[in-house]
Amino acid sequence: MGLHHLLNLRRYNHWPIAPLGLCLVGVSACIATVQPPENKPELPVRKVVLYQNGIGYFERRGEVKSGEVELRVRPDQINDVLKSLSVLDMSGGMASSVSLPVERSGDRLAAELPAQVRNAQGMHGLLAVLRGAEVEVDGQDGTLRGRVVGVESSQQLEDGKPKNIDVLTLMSDDNQLLCTPVAGIHKVIIGDRTLAVGLQQSLDISRSEGAWKPVKLMVRLAGDGTHDLILSYIHEVPIWRPAYRAWVESGKGVQLQGWAIVDNVSGEDWNEVNLTLVVGSPLSFRYNLHTPHNVQRPDLTSRLPQVADAPPEPDSGFGEAPAPAVAVSAPEEEDSWGGPGGAGPAKDSAKDSAKKGNYPPPSAKSAAYERPRAAYNRPPAPAQQAQADRSRAEEDARRDAMMRSAQALVSGKEVGALYTYEAQAPITVPDRSAALINIVSRRVQGQDVFLFREPQSGQAPFRAVLLRNDKESALEGGPITLYVDGTFAGEGFIGRIAREETAFIPYARESGFTLDMRFETKIDELRLVRVVDGRITVQGKRLQTRTVSLQSNRDKDSTAYVKLALTAGMSPLNPPKDWVKSGNDVYLPVHVAAKQKAESQLVEMTPVEFVEAGLTGQVLDAFRFYLKGQHLEDAVAGPIRELLANHEEIAAINRESQSLQEQRDILERDSQRIQGNLDSLPQGPVAAQLRAQLVHQMEASSKKLAEVAKKLVECQVKLAASQEKERVLLLSIRLK
């Protein structure tokens, strides 16, 4: 350690430097004899509240018999403390003031010091700073007084060998130059107070570099006697994070545990503190209150006269001198600063933690292991039965032990829009360490299922845990470790699960299923709304049905959920009881037996309305549905019945006309065939008889064709009359 590390400069006649020889020989003794300044008492931390927006609330409490109490805060915490510090004197007194040192950045302080002070390092640098200053030096040549001239190196013979030594030169009051070796100096008294104070500031800046040096707040109390004080404040802390464990067993639901990971990086131990964890994020922000804020002022120096006016030369005329120019100052710069601000109620109760029948931690059994089927057909041997009994007893003991260890250590309650977990007993978390605190321990509904998240992609489904949260509290997002039937199954991650909300937690991929989907759309439940001037308005429901068909190749019964997107503008109609809806998506359940096929349907509905100018199939259905109603208007029902009867007559005429057209087509083809045969017969007596037969057939076919043509004309006449009647009847119906 050099001499410059042991300087203890004081004002003139009070700035001695400890003897160099003593300090170099017994440095540890010198340091040990330095007594630190007596600190005022500091209150212990009694309560800690951690939020999920990176803010912690701290409460210190204790009795103080003096009129002052000290609070030490890290520099990165001071601004939050200044804007939130609250002092309560429970003994009836009050705080009179709170004082703290003004924060000034080291760069700015250093810039305000003289350059020689800023650059002073070591003895040579120190003496360079003192050049020209009045000093008193005690060295090997005794006590010398004067002004420092400088330090120079010179050679002297020592044991016949040249050696460089540093020599200090002083100028005395009688203008004599006095020299003394620097190595022999054991005391320097500075007579220039400005230099001494500047040197102290320079050392203070060096000492305060980094964030390790705490800021001391001194709380002064009014009145004498003992004060029962509560000091509370906030500052930034790491957020607490939840992590979960879930035991799933067939037919028994889910045993859920939740743990909070709490980090203490506050700079001091939390010994036996009342710890509270808050779910939610009250608004918070940063604001610099510690650093003095200076408002920049305009510099009007340019308004001072820059050049003195010279005496004017004589003129022969008369006139006015021009007015002097006035400099315009730059606009004042604005300083601004700000800070960012800092989610959903949740609570948990420990009352369910005493319930029995909980699930054990993972065993060594593999999830993929299955006993051979033949083993179930043989009665167990006595030794095997005894082993099975011991295993069941072990499982029961593990369940009980798990429940004892998993009892929630906190109780919950609502605080406005937030929810808090309050520790039931004081908790100790050493500084720079983390702690796991159980906050959730209860049974909820749930089961092991299969999940098709992308049914159209052809990917294998996920193994997932379907977890239905209860009314007790929301579950904050975090990782979750899953055990199915006592065996580790996988890990998942949950988002925030609100009260009575259902979540799927995928943890593995699974094959063994074939998925098929069908799509169908129809319009149903048509209703007659109005009929005016032959235009019919009909309302109904458009039904869209998606059928999910699932073929299982597994040896066990399974429940699978298929994720489907709801159609925009449509709403589900009579959905399955155990379906799950999440925003614009639904999860359709399919319960399928081993090696079997099962189906499930999602039916969506949207109302429709359309206007027709004729009797379409949908209009006829609406008319028929109207006539089934209980409250009918005779003026409307009668014409509608007649209209429907006339429509049936038109349909019959159309059917008859179609049949006649088919007969006509057959007769025309026969006539063409007979005529072809006649044309192909040769002339002469041999074919005369055959020709006579074909001519007779042609005459008969022509006669039938004429009769059919006549009936077709009659049908067309009837059809035209019926269609006109339909038009008249339709115009006569008025329904509004």
Which terms would index this structure?
single chain; 736 residues; alpha+beta; Immunoglobulin-like; 4 domains; ten-stranded mixed beta sheet; eight-stranded mixed beta sheet; 11 helices; 30 strands; elongated; disordered N terminus
Tell me what you see in this structure.
The termini are far apart. Mean pLDDT is 76; it is low at 1-39, 105-112 and 313-377. The strands form five sheets. Strands 13, 14, 19, 20, 21, 22, 23, 26, 28 and 29 form a ten-stranded mixed sheet that branches. The relative contact order is 0.09. Helices cover 24% and strands 36% of the residues. It folds into four domains: 3-236, no CATH class; 241-281 and 345-367 and 393-508, no CATH class; 512-627, Sandwich (Immunoglobulin-like); 634-732, Helix Hairpins, CATH 1.10.287. Helix 9 runs antiparallel to helix 10 (634-680). The chain is an alpha+beta fold and 736 residues long. The protein has eleven helices and 30 strands.
